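anyone seen this seq b4? input:
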Amino acid sequence: MGIAMKSGFQGGLVIDYPNSRKAKKYFLCLFSGGSSEGGAAKAKVEVPKGLDGEDPDRERENVQFEKRREKFKSRQKRKNMKDKDGREWILRKKELYRKRGKESVPNDSKYTGRQRKPVF
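predicted toks r here
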């Protein structure tokens, strides 16, 4: 930023939500050229103040995420749930419990992993 100031730019650094780890954003504001007012006297440009999260008019307190990130997470979650669904997964878990020495593991049968009929 110092090099930009030496080159003739004006401006500064604006930080939104400085006390937040997730929502903190840095914005570099640079203004080029000058105003024709005042001639040789340089007018000081005021950099806008960043948001600090204490605005009473603000409705949302959470950070809004992108749709593609949410889609990716839901796709991964679906994939993980698919891995846990089925007879093979149940048999692996039962074998793991037996290796650990757990005594109350149900016996394997031809009905292991099947859906139960709905009872009214």
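The helical segments are 2-6, 67-83, 87-100. The beta strands are 10-16, 25-31. kinda curious what u guys think
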